């Protein structure tokens, strides 16, 4: 039985190794993703459009695209009603998603920098500056529920496209679908870990404040009791 300590999971390389071992994301899976590039690449524009149609169909997700986006220098939408698939700021965000999807089927999963990139994608959505270009920019926070369900939606589109692909053998479809599913679940954890860490920190602060107030109250009550006794 392999021993995994809770503390080791705080360290990104150790966490990634555990995730890879548990879900069995192997070098073969990485090779399958690389080999699927020619299949996935033509699908990227349609996947990106479908994702943003979905994001703009709910006000709670669309509202994240009203503020000026980091790196975008054009005219920002004034309100939700200005948002559309053809708005320049949405086109700008679509390019980022295209780049992300391409990275999933091209980056070297043997390099720590690849996992650091995926981890930063998760971190940046919590409001912290995951990437250096966001350090001096206004905080961008998207609640975890939206990130998680979006990953599921992307996975559903991608898996359906692979399964329905007429030029792929059954074995190839199975291999690509499994590899893509694994990497998306690992990405999901690299979102969740930052949100959970923030919640734990906030809960810890609340507990400390509550404890401090309780101590102060006890001291005050004791002092009052002693004063009355004498």
From TrEMBL:
GO terms for molecular function: heme binding; oxygen binding. Signal peptide: none annotated. Keywords: Membrane, Transmembrane, Transmembrane helix. The keyword Metal-binding does not apply. Pfam families: Protoglobin. The chain crosses the membrane at residues 210-227. Residues 14-198 form the Globin-sensor domain. PANTHER family: GLOBIN-SENSOR DOMAIN-CONTAINING PROTEIN (PTHR42071:SF1), PROTOGLOBIN DOMAIN-CONTAINING PROTEIN (PTHR42071). This is Globin-sensor domain-containing protein. It comes from Galerina marginata (strain CBS 339.88). The lineage of its organism: Eukaryota, Fungi, Dikarya, Basidiomycota, Agaricomycotina.
């Amino acid at each position: 039985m392999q021993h995994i300590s809770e503390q080791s999971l705080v360290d990104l390389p150790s966490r990634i190794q555990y995730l890879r071992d548990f879900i069995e994301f192997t070098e073969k899976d990485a090779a399958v993703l690389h080999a699927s590039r020619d299949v996935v690449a033509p699908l990227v524009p349609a996947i990106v459009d479908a994702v943003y149609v979905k994001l703009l169909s709910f006000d709670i997700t669309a509202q994240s695209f009203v503020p000026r986006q980091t790196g975008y220098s054009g005219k920002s939408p004034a309100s939700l009603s200005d948002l559309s698939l053809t708005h320049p700021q949405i086109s700008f965000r679509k390019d980022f998603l295209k780049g992300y999807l391409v990275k999933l089927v091209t980056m070297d999963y043997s390099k720590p920098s690849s996992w650091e990139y995926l981890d930063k994608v998760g971190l940046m959505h919590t409001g912290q500056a995951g990437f250096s270009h966001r350090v001096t920019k206004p905080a961008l926070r998207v609640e975890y529920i939206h990130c998680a369900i979006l990953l599921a939606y992307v996975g559903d589109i991608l898996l359906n496209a692979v399964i329905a692909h007429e030029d792929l053998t059954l074995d190839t479809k199975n291999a690509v679908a499994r590899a893509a599913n694994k990497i998306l679940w690992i990405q999901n954890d690299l979102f969740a870990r930052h949100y959970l860490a923030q919640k734990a920190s906030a809960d810890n602060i609340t507990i400390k404040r509550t404890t401090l107030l309780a101590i102060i109250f006890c001291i005050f009550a004791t002092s009052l009791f002693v004063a009355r006794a004498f």
